[in-house]
Amino acid sequence: MANAQPQHQRQKQQHLFGSISRSVNTHVHLNHVYLFLLFVIGFSLGVVITLFLKNFLFTMAIAPFASTNTASVSLEAQRFIKCNTSDDELFRKATSMVQSKNIVVAKVAFMFLTKGPLPLAPLWEKFFAGHEGFYSIYVHSHPFYNETVPESSVFHGRRIPSQPVYWGTTTMIDAEKRLLANALLDISNQRFVLLSESCIPLFNFTTIYKYLINSNLSFLGSFDDPRSPGRGRYNPKMSPSINITDWRKGSQWFEVHRDLAVHIVSDTKYYRIFKTHCLPPCYSDEHYIPTLVNILYPELNSNRSITWVDWSRGGPHPVKFGGNQITDEFLNQIRCRSKCLYNGNTVTSVCNLFARKFLPNALGPLLRICPLLLGFNP
């Protein structure tokens, strides 16, 4: 009995140790399972969170184009949609932007329609200096033009996706609409002025800005010209949508407020008629917008241009001015040579805010005269 008791105890101890060992092994095994499950869960959560963040950031990047909110759209963001869309899609997007009543600062969109370089850019640099946030710049040049604009320039990165433009064809209208559509994507833009590479400002930025922002009308030449360069270009096939009594002529270089810009970009009916029936010697850039505005929105227009040009020598193109013609007397004569109505009832001598055509060699004299004459920073 004395030997049986220790043997029995040893068996109980062995059984106890076996149970403990099995429990430990089971616990260790479960720990491995738990750790594996935690790893799987953690990895899955990481993948889900990563995909969510990527989708969120992508959604944020395209949000300006997925809704018609009132936020302004940067030019860089605009390229995201325009590089892969047709003009029609761009025009629809631009005209669907909802007008905002909570704009902090209204801006003027300066739209440059050029063949390539902007030889008078240094003059415009002085014009814009110190007025950041009050203007936007858009440049439509030939798509194959390779520009090298310094990053410090106000024109850096301001080119929009473009198409070739040919004088005397509706491609000029396409380019104008393209500029307007790009500018309309920024809700802050309230006034839109079309300029060329040969245009110069005739007053300082503050004067021009206040003149445009405070105007309740657009500045677009639209008149009935009974001569052959006017009514003589009308095609009877445009009737009945466009009658001879509707036909108008005006300068290509317009300035319009936002409401009228939207109407111009959204038009398809009259554009198709012009594209089909206004062929040289009919020139759409001189007749399409003046006629369109006359038919649909005459009450929105002042019926005058604010870009001075000299047609005194006749011919299809205006006078060009070089460096030897640039004097303060000459510029002052352009600035204050006439009287006109502002806002329909105020007589003013400030009728022209811009002028053309100025050759590249006029830049030097302009840079010497304009800082003092126009009040630019020297």
What does this structure look like?
By secondary structure, the protein is α/β, with parallel strands linked by helices. The chain is 43% helix and 10% strand. It is built from 11 helices and 9 strands. The strands form 3 sheets. It has a 4-stranded mixed sheet. Strands 4-9-6 form a 3-stranded mixed sheet. Helix 1 crosses helix 2 (75-82), helix 3 (87-95) packs across helix 5 and helix 5 (171-184) crosses helix 7 (258-266).
Architecture blueprint of SSEs:
Blueprint: H1 4-66, H2 75-82, H3 87-95, E1 107-113, H4 121-128, E2 135-140, H5 171-184, E3 189-196, E4 200-201, H6 205-213, E5 255-257, H7 258-266, H8 269-277, H9 284-296, E6 307-308, H10 328-335, E7 340-342, E8 346-348, E9 354-355, H11 363-374
Parallel strand pairs: 1-2, 1-3, 6-9
Antiparallel strand pairs: 3-5, 4-9, 7-8
Short description:
It is built from eleven helices and nine strands. By secondary structure, it is α/β, with parallel strands linked by helices. It has a four-stranded mixed β-sheet with strand order 2-1-3-5. Strands 4-9-6 form a three-stranded mixed β-sheet.
Dominant shape:
globular
Average pLDDT figure = 82
Task: Extract low-pLDDT stretches.
Answer: 1-5, 23-34, 47-74
Major sheet characteristics:
4 strands, mixed
Distance, first to last CA: 120 Å
Side-by-side strand order of the widest sheet: 2-1-3-5
Q: SSE order, as H and E? A: HHHEHEHEEHEHHHEHEEEH
What is the number of beta strands?
9
Proportion of strand residues: 5-15%
If you compute it from the alpha carbons, what radius of gyration comes out, rounded to the nearest whole angstrom? Answer: 34 Å
Share of helix, binned: 40-55%
Helix and strand content put the structural class at alpha/beta
SS field, number of helical segments: 11
